[in-house]
Amino acid sequence: MGKRKFTIDLGNEKIEVEGHQHKNVAIKYLMKRRRSLLMTRDKNKVEKLFEQVPQTISIVGGHLIKSYKINWEREGTTEFEGSRFVFTLTDLPDKSVHTVAS
User: Fold this and answer.
1) pTM, whole model, 2 decimals?
2) What pLDDT does residue 98 have?
3) Alpha carbon distance 66, 26 (integer Å)
4) Is residue 64 domain-resident?
5) How far apart are CA 70 and CA 67, in angstroms?
6) DSSP letter at 102?
7) Residue 30 domain-assigned?
8) Nearest to 8 by CA among 39, 35, 31
């Protein structure tokens, strides 16, 4: 199975990417954002970056738009207890690309 084109829609920004599945594309993007938080040493910049992390993300594929609600935690309390800047994804109802485009 080859990579397909997806668009990450953050509301204020759209990013063109390639990937295999909607959820994997979302996780890859969010892990990059998390890595930025972990590697930044300036505490003020970390606070600013944490305020700007997306709370919802939509992945636009060829036929389907999958949206996810993102729950960010400064320190993991559930599955990844003690880890810093963890996130969990919650599926929101799917939309068809054709109904949105119309």
Assistant:
1) 0.86
2) 67
3) 10
4) yes
5) 10
6) -
7) yes
8) 31
Token pair of 54 as six digits? 């997306």
Nearest to 86 by CA among 39, 21, 31: 31
- Alpha-carbon span 30 to 19, nearest angstrom: 14
* Exposed / middle / buried, residue 51 (Cβ in 10 Å: 0-12, 13-18, 19+): exposed
- The answer as to whether 101 is a domain residue is no
Q: Kindly state the DSSP code that residue 96 receives in the 8-state scheme.
A: E
Count: domains in the chain: 1
Domain of residue 55 covers 4-96
pLDDT mean over 4-22: 94
In a domain, 102, yes or no: no
Report pLDDT digits (tens) over 92-101.
988 887 655 5
Helix H or strand E encompassing 62: none
